[in-house]
Amino acid sequence: MEPHEEKPIIYTMENKPIVTCAGDQALFTSLYNSLTQQLPREPMEWRRSYGRAPKMIHLEANFVQFKEELLPKEGNRALLTFPFLHIYWTDCCDTEVYKASVKEDIVRWQSLLRLHSTTDWLIVVVESDTKKKNKTNILPRTSIVDKIRNDFCNKQSDRCVILSDPLKDSSRSQESWSSFLTKLRTLLLMSFTKNLGRFEDDMRTLREKRTEPGWSFCDYFMVQEELAFVFEMLQQFEDALVQYDELDALFTQYVLNFGAGDGANWLCSFCQPLRSWNGLLLRRPIDMEKRELIQHGQASLLDLRSYLFSRQCTLLIFLLRPWEVTQRALELLHNCVQELRLLEVSVPPGALDCWVFLSCLEVLQRIEGCCDRAQLEANCSHTVGLWTYATEKLKSLGSLCGLVSENGPNSEDLNRTVDLLAGLGAERPETANSLQSPYKKLKEALSSVEAFEKHYLELSHAAMEMYRAIGRMRSARLVGKSLAEFYMRKGDPQRAEAFLQESLKSYLAEGWALPVAHTRKQIAECQKQLGQTDEYLQTSALLASDTHLTDMERKHFCQEILSFAGQTAEGHAQKVVLSMNAFAQLRQLQFRPATAVVHVGAALELELSLRSLMPVPVRLEQLAVSVHFSLEKGGARGRAGPGGGAGNRGRVGQGQGSPCGTVLFPGESPPGALPRSQPPALELYEIQDRSPSDGALNSAGVVCKNVHLLLRRQDSSASLDTPSSTAVAVEDGAQLLKTHDVSLLPGNNNILFTAPSREPGTYTLRQLCATVGRIQFVLPHIYPIVQYEVYSQEPQLSVEPLADNLLAGLPQRVKFIIVTGHYSIKRGDALQLSNSDAMPILSSSGCVARVLSSDSELVAETTLSMQSSEKVTSVSLPLAPPYHSVEFQLEVQCHIPAGPVRPESERLTNGEPWHRARSRQRTSSGMSVVDQKISIDCPWSIYSTLVALTFYIPFKAKHLLLSSGKRKYIQVCLQNVSDMNFHVSDQQLAERQQSSSLWLQSLNAKAKQLVHSKQSVFCLWEVKWTCEPPASLQCVFSINFCPADAQRSVFTPYYYEFQLDNVSTLYSLSADIQPAPGEQQCRTGTLCGLEVSIVRLAEPSDSEQQDEGPVETGGFCTTKLMYEVVDNSSNWAVCGKSSGIVSMPVAANATHKVRMEVMPLFAGHLPFPSIKVLKYLPHNAPSTIPPDTDGCVENDNISLLDKGLDDQADTSSIRSRGSVHSLGGGSEQQQRGLPMPRLEPFGPGQVFNRSQGCQVLVLPSKDDHVLEVNLT
Amino acid sequence: IELKFHYTVHTSLDVVEEKVSAVGKVIVDQRELYLGLLYPTEDYKVYGYVTNSKVKFVIVVDSSNTSLRDNEIRSMFRKLHNSFTDVMCNPFYNPGDPIQSKVFDSMVSSMMVQTC
User: Fold this and answer.
1) Which residues lie within the region annotated Disordered (chain A) (predicted)?
2) Cβ atoms of A1050 and A1042 closer than 8 Å
3) Which domains does chain B have, with CATH numbers?
4) Which domains are seen in chain A, by residue range?
């Protein structure tokens, strides 16, 4: 009935809160089953103190028979054995019986309870109908309850409940049960709250005393654990866990404080030397052995930790949080190791490793035991840490016990092993049957080399596979690497290498320089053992150049290479080809000359800057650059000359080609400096945001289009350059640049090569190869591409003026440039210049030729010797090697041609566009030009070179015939059109055909005159004659000039020829203006008389007869003249006929007078209106002038108006200039087509106007009337 | 010893990646930069921090150093991050070059001195 009654309380999870039962045991027994079943069925809300969240709990209880011993004695705080509720059962329904026995029984029970100050009790009165029927004369049943309530429950009526018909299945019974259970639960909880609260208070008090001496953690541990047990009992695992965690934290804090020098006495017991290290034990819910040790204060640190963790583990598994177990386990193991260190507990070597190893496996197996396979695999990330930790520990155990070495353990190792195994103690009974128990595993692993290897590999591979499975490749590789170390110690480099290479790959890819160096060192060891010579040497080279290693190590590896290189090759062993990357870096290439374009045979030097990465100087037997040769554009360059090379210059090292011919190689920085790829160039675009309505600019900006590329984060750091040790092939370059016996010092070395330049073409540098004994270091590609070009060039001659433009008439210097190209000027070579009369070559003795090398360095200066014969001037050239240039200057003088110079426009026909362009520029300055051609025979060619030179004539001359009555003057205007200033002197005018009848009297200054640029000088001569002057006069004007700034004034003549026609004066005109009759002066607005008289001065001449066709009229020979009075300045209004025809007898002193009326329009001194006289030729007269010459149209008014008038009477219209009769004009134009008389102007000087420049005073009119003449 | 640190930090990147990708799935924008303890070893505790642009900081603390709590580590990372940002903002700094800033250097060493 009460199965637990007699048993000792054992600490299992079957613990339930104890409820005692007193009173009618038979009654209780009958109800026991349904009670235990129904009690946990419904949850109750448990409100808790200290603000802890209320919880719903399912209550269970262990009902035991009430005994006095069960009541806790004073001071006993055991909670597990604590009866939380006491129930008194009775089914008494008889008042008598109640009074007789039950009441007494209850009183006794109550007094017992009170003695132990327990207030948690309940009286249950069970009613049943069967009993009622037996006794019919019963009191109302409530009376018993009332009595009990009256007797015992003063003010606590709820301490007495009725359970009616509990064994019947009726609704009333159900109801009664449920209210009973609720009451029971409530009271139970109340009891919990009260008792636990009190317990917690006590516990806290105890904890507060922890600073007092004599306080023991172990005692406290037991107390708090009691609480944890109760929570566990109440299925409140979370709360139970909290208790343990609190204990854990408290202990940890003590240890830390101890470390900080604040030791507590009780801790000393944990500082005992470690004697047992038998791992965690997680298979029991409660490890009683350890618990007892703690209880008695005999536990070691590991014991306490183990126990604590096993409890935590148990609770976590109850809470279904196995992954937290693994995490906590790892923390615990690390922590324990630290704590042991901190507490300075003496630990035999390896003991801790054993403990950790066992614990790891124990935890893992415990977890495996409660999870299925899929779950385990999904949560590798939680367990893998333990696996790795176990692996590490096993490894260190292995090396400790001499199980890793090739020879196996020695006796010392064996002793150590025995000691370690002793510390494990005997296997625990729980695992004794399991073959895979951690205990057995460890024992086996330590038993023999083979077993150890088996277990170690098993663990390593398991850990690696888990890491791989969860994507922790780096961790997997680290395990692999440690596996490799194991293999190395086992003398199995083959397997080790694979792991190492994999690790190396990842370190390289992610740029971890230090691990790279370390791993490489291990690989080198592997390769050495494996006898992989090439690989070993390559690795050694890498290591020797690795700055992360010590100097000693680097030298060692360098020595390895050198000693191999120094071995004499056995048989026909090939040279070992290694990549140069590790050995040295090509930093810079520099061509000399910088353009990297040279002519055939020229010296081209190539300076190589090689940065040796070796720690010691290395002697290279040979350093060679293989060159690829292609004919590409080699021949085509022929005449391009050095200038053409400029276009190709960009090819020298594309991109980074600097104008100084230096090619920089991207700084492959030493390993470890983390190189980075060049970021892409910015692509920027303009962006404009215009408002849609009016198109106004809202904003403008710059947008980078490739932001995503630029701002993309490059992961950590770019990888270290992986040298491709494979595929380093030596090209059999046909051409090689070589140097021998170079000593390569650490750091930068400059090595000079002479590049071959025998063939024209393009040479591309391909490979760099350094030979050290049997080893060749090869740089397979030189990138960026480096090229140089060799060209061949034809000789060339060019002639250039020294000045901007050559001036004719003066000695001018002309520069001759000979580019020798491939031709070398030999002794006796000369230029043959064909002479021309117009441009003699002035041989000056001090003519110096300069020989320049192709890069414009002066090589030699020699004096030229020139020989002139009639036809040819020969200039002997100085000796010059090929691809040089010879420069010299010659003086030439172009004579100014005397005759009328071609107008400039004609010159344009010579067709060379640049000439045209030039001449057009010159037209503004109005310079005339002379082209001169020289034909030059060059020694290298059978053809003559024709050189055209253009000379500019610095002067322009104009002439003018001036008359004064019959006297004649010739004025010559000399205009300096050049940019120079000149002195002029000795101006002379002479007749072409010397005739005695005529002489020219100079009216000029004798001294020399200065003519500034763009200015003119005027000269005047009077023409005098004895007899009649000829109709046409041909004159030559000459003047001497020399540059104003010349040291020696060597005057050169300038000639100007011109012809004058109709020199003599035929008519004299005179005009007179008379005021109106009766007036003293002319007045505005009044008509004045204008009298024009035309007087014939000269006798008729023969030429005149022919020309003008005089008409015989009345025995007189007359010519018709037309006069015209025109006032161009609107001063006068001509009234009446302004023009007319007069017939002049062809005889001297024949006079004709014409009168007309003019009206002054303004007051003041008015110039006379101008009067013109023209020849009037009848329509049948032979035309000497083309019909539509300017003469006709010279004055529109006349030709238009007066043609029609012809012989008619005068029109009386007032004509003034501009007042055109448009109506009349239309009709008159019709007559244009008809044959009509022509007007011809007289030549200059034929008509002399005496009254030219005369003025007449006009007074304003008396009345204030202002005459307004509207002028249009 | 430095070598060991390199190996440790290198391996810790595994966990960083794992954490970053795990976090990335949950909330993208408002994530905590501090990754917390990456993984403990017997001798060291490795803490991680990843900036929004995936720059990773790792602090390795001796296991026996118990004075540093999570919060201190976090503030150390913040300081480190700020200082790092300053370095990156320097217009004369070329992204990718090794950091040579004296300020950054002194900040880091002051942090080291403080914790020791």
Assistant:
1) 635-677, 901-923, 1207-1240
2) yes
3) 2-115 (3.30.450.70)
4) 3-197 (3.40.50.10140), 575-668+723-791 (2.60.40.10), 796-953 (2.60.40), 955-1061 (2.60.40.1230), 1067-1178+1237-1259 (2.60.40.10)
